[in-house]
Structure formats: C-alpha cells, structure tokens
Amino acid sequence: MLDNIRSLAQGWVGKALLALITIPFALFGIDSYLSSAGNNVAVAEVGSNSISIQAYGDALKNTRARLLAEGKVDQAELDSPAVKALVLNQLINKQLLSDEIQHEKYAISDAQLSTFVTGMPEFQKDGKFSQELYDQLLQQNHITPTRFEAGMRTDLLAQQAQDGIAKLGFISNARADSAFKLANQQRVVSVSEIKTKDFISQVKIDPAAVKAYYDLHKDKLREPEQVKIEFLLLSASSLIPTIKVDDAEVKKFYDENTSKFQGNEQRRASHILIGFGVSATPEKKQEAKAKAEALLAVIKKDPSKFESLAIKNSQDTGSAVKGGDLGTFGRGAMVKPFEDAAFSMKVNQISDLVESEYGYHIIKVTEIKGENSDFNSLKPQVKAELIYQKAQAAFTEQAEGFTNMVYEQSGSLQPAAKAYNGQVQTSDWLSREAGAKFFKNDKIMSLVFSDEVLKEHRNTEAVEVSPNNLVSARLVEYKPAATKSFDSVKAGIEDLLKIEAAAKLALAKGDAALKTLQQGKEAAGLDWIPEVTVDRKNAQGLTELAMNQVFNTNATKLPAYSGVANSKQGYLLVKVIKVNTPSSTDADAQKTAKTELNEALSSEYLAAYKQSLRVKAKVKVNEKLLLSNQANN
C-alpha cells in the first residue's frame, strides 16, 4: 500500500505532521503505583475494551510536556484533577470512536489514503507531490511508512465518522442575523448596590442563637489533625559557599560555552546552499561540492554576482528568491558550522565552503548589530554560572547517599545532618494542608501523615520538594482532629449570623425598591452610578454579575429595571435606559457570525454524539485506582 510514496521528514514540518497523528493525551506521576500494580491494570473499561494504567500514564506525561512547552509551568495546574480528568476523557472518547468506526464498518480505501497524502501541502514541491520530500520528512522524524499510513488512515476514519454529525450544526441566515444583532447590541445602563455591610449595625444576635448554631454544626467546626515535625533539607544552593573555582577554570568554562555568554550581537547574512540530500553517497557529496566550488570561484572574482547566483542556484528556496538573504539572527539560531562561520566574519566578507547537515554553504555577512561582550566584562557572570553548575553536580552526587541514609537510619535525622553538614529544623503545628503550602509540595505531607511516620516513628523518604531541594521529615508530636471549642469559634459564628441577617435586610430593601421602580415611581435612598454604554465585550468597569443582569433585563419598555441578590454582599439593581441595535448591512460581520455559530453548534452535536456513545458502551472508571494514583504523585 502506498508503495509509490514512501517516507516523511525532520524539523518543524515533520513535527507538525506528527501532531496530526499523535493525540497529545496526558498523565504523570504514577511510577510508584505502576511498580506495585502492574502496567496492564485497567484505569477504565469502555465496552469490551479497557484503557490500561500504562496508556493513561503515557498520555498524562505527553500532556504535561505539552503544557510545559506552552509555558504552563504551574505545578499545581499540571497536577490538578482537571488535567487528569481531561486526559482520561480524551482516551475514553478515542476508544469509543474507534469502537464505533469498527462497528459501523467505516472504511478508507488505499486509493483515498494515497490521494489524501499526496495532496498534503507539506509534501508539495513546485505544485506537485515530491517523493523525495516525503521520504526526507519521514526519515528525519524516524517514522516508518507503515506507521505514518496507519496514523493517517485512523485520522481519516475518525473524520469520516464525525463529519456527518458536525454538519447537523446549521443555522439559518435569519437566525444568524438575529444572533449577530444580539451579540453586538449596546445598552446604556446604570446600577445601584444595596450593600449588606450597611445593615450590619442594625442587627443584634441573641447569644442563644450563636450556641444553637454551634450545636447544629459541630461536625463541620473541626480542627484538622496536626503535627509538629523535624525536617532536614539537602539543597544545591546551600552547597554554593563550599564551591571554589580559580580563574583558569572560569576562562576554560567560558571558552567551552562561548555562545551561551555572548552579548546581544546579531548578524545578517545571505547564503547559497548546494545540498546533497539525506544519506548521500560519497559521489553525490562530491558532485555537490564541485558545483559549490565552481560558484565560489565566480563569486570570489566578482562578489556583486552573489545575489543573482543565489537566485539561480541556491537550493534553499525560501531565501533564494531574496538573493540568499536569511535576515537577522543571533547565536543558537543556525546549525553550528554555519553559526561559527557567520560569527567569525566581517561585513561583506565571503566565506569558503561551509559544510553542514544540509549541504555546502557559501556565506556572505551583510550586517552586524549589537555588542559581543568580552570575557573580562562577563567574568563575574561566568564564574557564578560555573559555581552553580558545580553545586548542582555536587548535589546530584550527594542526593543518593542522603536518600539512602535517611531510609537506612530511619530512627533519626541527626546522622544525615552530620554527614551532609545540615541542620535539623522543627516546625510549629501543621495541618496536612498548611504543611503542603509550607513545603510547596503535597507528597511530603502525605508521607508525614502515613502510618510509617505516625505510628512507627520513622523518617520519611527523601522527597524532592522542588528542583535541587531534598527534604526528609519525622514526627515530633501529633494532635488528632477534634471539634473546636465553643469559645474559640463564638465570635466567628456571631459575625456570620450578623451577615446573614443583614443580607436579608438588604434583599428586602432591594425587592421593595425594584417593585417601586417597576411601577414607574422613584425609589428613595438609591445611589446610581453615572450612565455607561456597554456591550458584551466591553463592561466599562461593571462586574460580571452586573453584566449578566444587564443583558438578562427585559428591555421591551424603557427605562427597564431588574434586580438580583448578590450572595451575602447585598442586592444589585440594574436600570436599562437605552438599547442600540446594530444594522444588518455588514455582510462580512454577518458571515463571520454565522460561521462561528455553525462551528459552535457542530461542537455541541459532536459532544452529544460522543456522550451517546459513552452511554451506549457503558463506560466504567476505576475510581479507586485513580485515587491511589493521585496519592502516589
């Protein structure tokens, strides 16, 4: 199958194609569970099929990597139940769709697959499918033709199964026009807040009511279990003062990492590339070299011919049309042989042949910007970086010994403190939640509250609470969960009851004012803000609650009034003074609105379709396994 189009590619294009055939699901932090549970334990059953904990774990790791690549580095977010639920639901939906495709006998013929692949823009050269480009891309991404074809076929089958459902999401021109007008409607409004806090001084709470509330809610008025602990930290940063380096080491480190310590220097260059292809034979490389040497000889005699020769001969099609111009770049942007040559040249200098993985380059530097900082000016920065790297290396060397010692001598932290020049510290009383915030890590507190620590009085295992920081802890004192005393919560209960009573007074005043206003009369004691013109995208300082109420207000008769209770904050009155509805003459805006509505409807239909598959297939999730997995993160 597809014998006429075998192979794919390196670089960003290949990675983009991989994204088409690799669903980036996610799960992570389950290694400790896998060691005891086994990789084939089912985290969910989908009809007659199952999703293994291994598949779930691989998917979560992929998602974690994707989120990190997108700049979402908040560990709490990466570890959140929402991310894990998303991953599991994606895996379940994928299996449901696969089962439906098989059950309904959807099929993609070899001819259909071949037509689709040969038509993909990534494989086009001069408007036609390029076998060479296809082969190159596959090879560079280490994807076999069979795997690529299977991935494409799976994608096309999934598209085939969902296309008919998505097309149900259709909206008429009239409804699209109406939706467009509503979405872009402007309202001139004012609001008035009747605040709960303004009524608190009018409220008196009977002490008997406070006691009654306490007796009724004792089960919720509890102090969580707490511990006092000793803990010992092994940190790379604490090793920095012990690291010594001399000037020779600093200079050597600078020379070995020159590109890392450059200033803001930028180069602009042009090049002519004569490529020799992937896995080129010696003969093919020699042929490319001979052609490049001939071009170089011409350019050396007459440098003014560089641009015209680049246009005619360079195999880097993107820059060739611009006379070989690559634009401005800094260090790290180009492959190393090219970078080394470009950053060693002067303006308008022509290089000798430079060989890289792409072929032979003839380089011309056309501009130099910024400053190339020398060693002496950068010496303090280089020294600090070297010391930190050495501290990290020392930390890595000591981490294993530290981990083993707190485990093997689990009756005390003192031996490890002595061996690693640490200091055992003692905490104040900590709940599980407070301890997790203190260490910025959940796992260490899960271990502290384990039977091994609470009952057997052992050290916890060493936990990396943050990069290059290991902590082990042990119990000093334990306090079980208990109901809070009446005296300790009495004042808080009284304040709560005052707020509840004041909120009722605010609500009563708001309801009365609204009725008066709706009767066309003036309501006394209201403080209206100056009029503002708002639409659904521009709140002009109004809260989300106010904006929702503004556009929920029936404006058939103006001025129109409505009101809403604002939790325990009070009561919000809304006055709609004028409504500005856009005309229907903007054809482009109407077309955009219709497209967006159709897409939204299609998404809803697809979501309902997948939900119907889930109900029909009787999906079962192993909640116990998921909880165990979370506990071992």
Describe, in plain words, how this protein is organized in 3D.
The structure is a single chain. This protein has about 625 residues and is of the alpha+beta class. The chain has four domains: about 10-165 and about 620-630, Triger factor/SurA peptide-binding fold; about 185-205 and about 485-580; about 225-240 and about 380-485, Chitinase A, domain 3; about 265-370, Chitinase A, domain 3 (Roll). Strands 7, 12, 13, 14 and 15 form a five-stranded antiparallel β-sheet that branches. A four-stranded antiparallel β-sheet has the order 17-5-19-18, with helices on both faces. Strand 3 and strand 4 form a beta hairpin. The longest helix has about 35 residues, at about 375-410. Residues about 1-40 and about 630-633 have low confidence and may be disordered.
**Residues in helices, as a percent range:** 40-55%
CATH class assignment of the largest domain: Mainly Alpha
Overall pLDDT level? 83
Q: Kindly identify the CATH topology of the largest domain.
A: Triger factor/SurA peptide-binding fold
Radius of gyration: 35 Å
CATH-level-4 superfamily name of the largest domain: Porin chaperone SurA, peptide-binding domain
List the helices and strands and how they pair.
Blueprint: H1 11-21, H2 31-37, E1 42-46, E2 49-52, H3 53-69, H4 75-78, H5 81-103, H6 110-118, E3 124-125, E4 128-129, H7 131-140, H8 145-166, H9 173-183, E5 186-195, H10 207-216, E6 222-223, E7 226-235, H11 236-239, H12 247-256, E8 266-274, H13 282-301, H14 306-313, H15 317-320, E9 325-329, H16 336-342, E10 354-356, E11 359-369, H17 375-408, H18 414-419, E12 425-426, E13 430-431, H19 432-439, H20 442-448, H21 451-454, E14 463-466, E15 469-479, E16 482-483, H22 486-518, E17 532-534, H23 544-552, E18 560-566, E19 570-580, H24 587-617, E20 620-621, H25 623-631
Antiparallel strand pairs: 1-2, 1-20, 3-4, 5-17, 5-19, 6-16, 7-12, 7-13, 7-15, 8-9, 8-11, 10-11, 14-15, 18-19
Helix pairs in contact: 3-5, 5-8, 5-24, 9-24, 10-22, 12-17, 19-20
